[in-house]
Amino acid sequence: MPEFGFSSAPANHNSQFFNHHSTTKLGTIRPTNSEHKFKFFVDKKSTGFLCSKLWDFNSGFNNFQFFGECCAIQSNRCRPRSKKHKVSCLKHAKTLVLNDYQPCSMCSGFYSTIQLGTLRPRNSESKFLSGGVLTIPISNSFKHGSGNLGLCEVNWSNKKFVLRSKSVLSVDKVVEREESGGELGRENSHDAIVIGSGIGGLVAATQLAVKGARVLVLEKYVIPGGSSGYYQRDGYTFDVGSSVMFGFSNKGNLNLITQALAAVGCEMQVIPDPTTVHFHLPNNLSIQVHREYSEFIAELTNKFPHEKEGILKFYSECWKIFNALNSLELKSLEEPIYLFGQFFQKPLECLTLAYYLPQNAGDIARKYIKDPQLLSFIDAEVVSTVNALQTPMINASMVLCDRHFGGINYPVGGVGGIAKSLAKGLVDQGSEIFYKANVTSIIVEQGKAVGVRLSDGREYFAKTIISNATRWDTFGKLLKGECIPKEEENFQKLYVKAPSFLSIHMGVKAEVLPPDTDCHHFVLEIDWTRLEEPYGSIFLSIPTILDSSLAPEGRHILHIFTTSSIEDWEGLPRKDYEAKKELVADEIISRLEKKLFPGLRSSIVFMEVGTPKTHRRFLARDKGTYGPMPRSTPKGLLGMPFNTTAIDRLYCVGDSCFPGQGVIAVAFSGVMCAHRVAADIGLEKKSPILDAALLRLLGWLRTLA
Ligand SMILES: NC(=O)c1ccc[n+]([C@@H]2O[C@H](COP(=O)([O-])OP(=O)(O)OC[C@H]3O[C@@H](n4cnc5c(N)ncnc54)[C@H](O)[C@@H]3O)[C@@H](O)[C@H]2O)c1
Ligand SMILES: CC(C)=CCC/C(C)=C/C=C/C(C)=C/C=C/C(C)=C/C=C/C=C(C)/C=C/C=C(C)/C=C/C=C(\C)CCC=C(C)C
């Protein structure tokens, strides 16, 4: 047995690595200036092992450059330090295998290949996106062992070499290294595999883990979060998507984000937003949704005095639903012991919810309100991709009341911290998350989902499989060779993919924002008919109003998005695609300049435009869709599927499940999913007879939608 030893060195101490032939020094782990950064030096003088001189995990396992001659891999925010460091990037190469790697004489014989996995060059020769699997064939003498490398933990065996961050906040990734695409045997299988680490997937995973399940989350990208992830550029921390956080207070039962974090021992500092959204609407109508309900109602009735009574009645009805929801313990509506228990304990509240389940907000608003402009405002207010007539009343009530009950709160450090904390919490519970793990198929045997296969050939098996990919991706792409079940056909009849969106992330000079600018804005300045049209409504968040640490000093972040369809962007030659991005962004900037911030254009110091193609690629969502939207007028939430599917042991979670789009909504779907799965694998009470009856009843109810 070779002799191994890593001193479990804290940051700034040396870590040593020994084998029986000689001593190989793995060098010093030096965290650089933030928790996210550290350097890992490997001493070239050693007799073997890695001949990489430097790994710099600056922005995750994101950006690699390879320096052939000096045997070093360096990620330095994609910027070569000098010309000699620059390597030409294999454009569009799917896998970058550094076969031309020149091992130094000390290293030869130990390995000849370093594979950086799926590397895709970004937009310049010196940039790569994402490292993926780093395969380092290991000398035969290295059989088994483990150790600590400062912020890293290393485990190796014959087949596997795993470098894993000890803290998700330090390094946002787990890198699997295998000699030959090894397979985790079925005897090692998990209780659940979760495909995708969006908030839906992470909440399902963490809730299961705290119930005692062993969970493996497989994420295609290099960090967790999906639409609720983040990225960093030039000193800015940008939220990928979500910036308006519902369910993040310390009050009541509906603060599902707070509860999900607390379940795994995490708490995030939040900053209360005094104005949820500032609406800038046609006819110069400007409405601020104040955190205080009474202030909001005063503002609205001031603008629409003739509708005072209707306003009070409509919002009171929303509160009735919100209060009923808030009184329940939220778990799986597909689990009869819980559901009947709630009916028994809170009959009035449950009947209230059952009554509103098939209703839409627009119809109820029209019972009380006649002014078309006010009705259009309510359409905009429900912040979904459709108008209030197509928005379930239960969902609208959540959005319209939680903003006053718990308020909208922004997490210090950015929205990405939520997913990072959940992922850390998951690992702390003894479960696992692998990044750059692209699931390409769900393995079904005798009608049961039993495992998944990754694009690199690895296979993992578990008692249950939970897909956080959209239902279109799950049933259209991941279940190969399976007929689409009738239930899914029905779902696709009732719901279509909402368009995707165009996003602009900007850094601007702080002076351009007038004092007292609000954090979130909705802009539809000219024509109400453009509300649901592509590029019609503009959503704008300025998170640096609340948390200035997200941008360099004297700068603000503007995160702008508007709906856009992928069809608009497909088939364009690169040059035209880039030109179109510029054109569309330019038009949006002009609108914002005119309406809100004169001089905006000249104050821009950083700008990146994402299109539906960007969202398809990074979020792995079919057509980059924002989520499901009803094909016509739905019967409230009646047609929305829950978490079980027609395939035994396969569950779905996320926004194509009940109750739909929205971060808090997918968090609820995660809670429900974890409860149903836990019952099915024996971690919660279950009654097979009642299960069968309830699932049949729910299936029948969906046919009425
Ligand atoms: N409030 C806002 O401003 C805002 C903005 C954007 C999105 N959102 C919300 O976020 C919600 C989405 O959350 P979600 O949890 O449903 O999903 P998600 O899309 O955020 O996350 C899904 C995750 O699964 C991963 N994935 C997909 N296919 C995979 C595969 N085959 N293998 C491995 N990983 C795979 C993706 O990379 C992604 O990380 C949307 O409903 C939307 O409403 C909100
Ligand atoms: C089952 C049967 C038969 C019966 C029974 C009865 C009962 C008991 C029932 C119950 C129910 C329940 C519990 C339900 C629940 C629900 C929930 C929780 C829901 C939630 C929802 C939420 C939502 C929807 C949310 C959403 C959100 C959103 C969408 C957001 C968005 C945002 C945005 C767009 C942003 C904006 C921005 C700017 C402006 C800048």
TrEMBL record:
Required co-factor(s) are:
NAD(+); NADP(+); FAD
Report the record's Gene Ontology biological process terms: carotenoid biosynthetic process
State the pathway, as annotated in the record: Carotenoid biosynthesis; lycopene biosynthesis
Catalysed conversion reaction:
7,7',9,9'-tetra-cis-lycopene = all-trans-lycopene
Top-level enzyme category: isomerase
Ranges of residues in domain Amine oxidase: 199-677
| Domain of life assignment | Eukaryota
Which Enzyme Commission number(s) are listed? 5.2.1.13
Question: By its UniProt entry, which Pfam families does this protein fall under?
Answer: Amino_oxidase (PF01593)
Membrane topology of the entry:
Peripheral membrane protein
Kindly list the places in or outside the cell where this protein is found, as annotated in its UniProt entry: Plastid, Chloroplast membrane
GO cellular component, alphabetical, reads: chloroplast membrane
Q: Which GO terms describe its molecular function?
A: carotenoid isomerase activity; oxidoreductase activity
Give UniProt keywords alphabetically.
Carotenoid biosynthesis, Chloroplast, FAD, Flavoprotein, Isomerase, Membrane, NAD, NADP, Plastid, Transit peptide
The Swiss-Prot or TrEMBL record describes its family as follows: Belongs to the carotenoid/retinoid oxidoreductase family. CrtISO subfamily.
NCBIfam families linked to this entry: carot_isom (TIGR02730)
Q: Could you identify this protein by its name?
A: prolycopene isomerase
Q: Which organism is it from?
A: Carpinus fangiana
